[in-house]
Specification:
159 residues; Immunoglobulin-like; 2 helices; disordered C terminus
Length: 159
């Protein structure tokens, strides 16, 4: 191979590295739907709140927001996220089925900070005393989520 051919090859490789995006999982492949299948509630208990912390991930969607709930999401740029939710009135308390595919998360894969989910759920039967159930990642089930909804306006700006 001549020096001219080698130079041309190096130039092509350099341009390809600069102009082509890095090979990574498509954004939709990092989306996971979170469920809590084995939540143990006593007779008459209802869910009155929850708090979750996500490490190396973000809250991408909350498919169902119950009426009478106050929900706060902090999607910190560090990819350490939290969501806090609580009822505003006792009639808004939900049962355990609420936690079936209740949240869509996007994982940010980083070797130095592994993906994790933990938190607690607050339950009550009389709305004066609250029991807190601690949660770890092993308590959740996760499956790949469908692609995120994109508004028509966003589609027009990002075809």
């Amino acid at each position: 191979m001549t020096s001219c051919a080698r130079l041309a090859l190096i130039l092509v490789i350099t341009l390809a590295a600069i102009l082509l995006p890095a090979v990574a999982a498509p954004p939709d492949a990092r989306l996971i739907s979170l469920s809590l299948p084995a939540l143990q509630l006593a007779a008459g208990e209802r869910i009155v709140g929850f708090h979750l912390q996500v490490t190396s991930g973000r809250i991408a969607q909350l498919p169902e927001v119950p009426i009478g709930w106050n929900i706060s999401v902090e999607n910190d740029p560090s990819w350490n996220t939290k969501i806090d939710a609580s009822i505003i009135v006792a009639a808004a308390a939900v049962d355990g089925s609420f936690f079936n595919n209740f949240l869509v998360l996007e994982r940010e894969e980083r070797p130095e900070t592994p993906f994790d989910v933990k938190g607690e759920i607050s339950v009550s039967s009389d709305f004066s005393m609250v029991r807190r159930i601690q949660l770890r990642i092993k308590d959740f089930t996760m499956k790949q989520a469908a692609p995120l909804y994109q508004s028509q306006r966003a589609k027009e700006h990002n075809p």
